[in-house]
Specification:
This protein is α+β, with helices and mostly antiparallel strands. Helices cover 30% and strands 19% of the residues. It has 5 helices and 8 strands. The protein has helices at residues 7-32, 44-52, 63-68, 71-113, 157-161, and strands at 175-178, 183-190, 201-203, 214-219, 240-244, 249-260, 274-282, 289-297. Strands 1-2-3-4-7-8-6-5 form an 8-stranded mixed beta barrel. It starts with 6 loop residues before the first helix and ends with a strand.
């Protein structure tokens, strides 16, 4: 009977009952997979020592505490700590490098988006004004006048002679008419080289198209190949010059003329206004200078 047992015996009976109940729960958990065996059951000596300890306190020394303090466990804990520290350091390095890479990319994108200050490219590449030739002989023979070209500029002539001739587009000049001097519906070709000016009036490659802002430069002969610009010196301010394209016609009003040296290529310089510049050799049958006629676009 319980009343016949001493206090020590009751305590031991209660502990046994608790141990059996705990063991049964563990067995149920293990069978269902909810618990696993991490350490072997305590030996009888350890159980006796545990039972002899007052209350539910565990002994300070024993197999469990020895397992917790085993060198292998401490070694594994140290390795895990080192791995964690290395992971943190690696993550910090990745973040630092990522920020540096992002900063570099931003600088490169900003540099790519920053457009350099553009300066206008001069259209003048000629060393002399176009349409130059020797005075025609009695048989009408003439050729390109190389004597006009300064000796130090002769090496530049070959690259200019090889410039490709663009295919005429719908906005480029195709015909010219100057009623005041009898020029009626003459063809305009692209390029103002020796071969191009045999076919008609030549448009300087790179000069602006009719009606557009800039300097439209046209050249023609005065005493050979049709003498299209023979009477160019008769033009007066107010005379009209009509330039035709495939789509429409443009009217220019003469503003003045000038006699210049063959090397004064600045008359072909780009302008901020829509103007027309006509160039031909001068005087008639002598051809040692150039006559230049300037006109502005009517109602641009």
């Amino acid at each position: 009977m319980p009343e016949e047992l001493s206090e020590q015996e009751l305590r031991r009976l209660l502990l046994d009952k608790r141990r059996i109940a705990r063991q049964q729960r563990l067995e149920r958990f293990r069978s269902s997979g909810r618990a696993v065996m991490l350490a072997p059951d305590l030996p009888p000596a350890a159980l006796e020592e545990w039972r002899a300890s007052p209350g539910d306190e565990r002994p300070a020394e024993g197999p469990l505490s020895e397992l917790a303090r085993s060198p292998r466990r401490r070694w594994m804990d140290g390795i895990l700590l080192i791995v964690e520290i290395m992971a943190v350091v690696g993550l910090a390095g990745i973040l630092f490098n990522g920020m540096g890479l992002l900063r570099t990319l931003n600088q490169e994108v900003a540099a790519a988006l920053q457009q350099p200050t553009l300066s206008p490219t001069p259209l003048i590449t000629a060393v002399v004004l176009p349409s130059g030739h020797t005075p025609p002989s009695a048989q009408g023979y003439s050729e390109f006048n190389k004597a006009e070209i300064p000796e130090h500029l002769l090496p530049l002539m070959k690259p200019q002679a090889n410039l490709p001739i663009p295919t005429p587009g719908p906005e480029q000049a195709i015909r010219i008419s100057i009623p005041a001097i009898g020029v009626r519906d003459w063809p305009v070709v692209q390029g103002d080289g020796w071969e191009q000016l045999k076919k008609g009036v030549g448009q300087q490659i790179g000069s602006t198209n009719p009606g557009q802002t800039g300097n439209l430069v046209l050249s023609g002969h005065n005493d050979i190949y049709g003498e299209v610009f023979k009477r160019l010196d008769e033009l007066k301010p107010g005379d009209t010059i009509i330039i035709f394209t495939i789509n429409r016609q443009y009217v220019y009003i003469v503003t003045g003329s000038q006699i210049v040296e063959p090397t004064q290529v600045e008359v072909m310089a780009p302008t901020s206004d829509p103007i027309l510049t006509l160039i031909s050799c001068y005087p008639y049958l002598i051809d040692n200078k150039r006559i230049v006629v300037f006109a502005k676009l009517q109602n641009p």
